[in-house]
Amino acid sequence: MAEQQGVAGKVRQIVQPAADALGLSIWDIRYVKEGTSYFLRIFIDKQGGVGIDDCEAFSRAIDAPLDQADPIQESYYLEVSSPGLGRELTRPEHFSAYSGQDVIIRLIRPLDGQKEFRGKLGDCSDGKIRCETDGGPLTFDRSAVAKVCADDLDF
Q1: Which of 69, 90, 97, 125 is the most core-located residue (most Cβ within 10 A)?
Q2: Bridge partners (DSSP) listed for residue 41
Q3: Is 118 in a helix, a strand, or coil?
Q4: 1-5, 21-25, 87-91, 138-142: which range is least confident on average?
Q5: How many CB atoms lie within 10 A of CB 128?
């Protein structure tokens, strides 16, 4: 849950003013290589949710500042989207916002034969993630957790 560094941190500084001006929050930024291509993925959010118009407006607003600052050496594809349902919690403010909410915690290695746990997110401090499950309270070392996602996929 450390502050983003590298490309994502630089990009956040460049695009934050545009997000603020449009009433958006930046949920996450990921710079990844898939095959031979690089992708800069910026996930935006706002109260009430994000639509395609928000993504388009934000993309247009950050195009010139990103070109001018040129924080990425390689050619890349820019993708702007909502974090959507089942959004991954990666930053301290995500964990604070989802405290008491339903989450899915996926572990790197199984614990008693199980890698996935569902429950209500509790305190996330001191390198620990606490969760109230149907089987009782559980505490995981952050280093043992592969992913924490919102459990809001109700069908």
Answers
A1: 90
A2: 30, 79
A3: strand
A4: 1-5
A5: 14
Residues with Cβ within 8 Å of residue 85, at least 6 apart in sequence: 150, 152, 153
pLDDT in tens, 130-144: 999 999 999 999 999
Return the domain boundaries, the chain: 6-81, 92-150
Tell me if the pTM is above 0.85: no
61 near 18, Cβ under 8 Å?
Answer: yes
In eight-state DSSP terms, residue 144 is G
Residue the block writes with tokens 């695009």: 15
Q: Where is 8: in which H helix or E strand?
A: helix 6-21
| Fold annotation for 6-81 | GMP Synthetase; Chain A, domain 3 (3.30.300)
Q: CATH number for the 92-150 domain, one of 3.40.50.150, 3.40.50.10320, 2.30.30.100, 1.20.1440.230? A: 2.30.30.100
CA-nearest of 22, 58, 20 to 40 is 58
CB-based contact 29:5 (threshold 8 Å): no
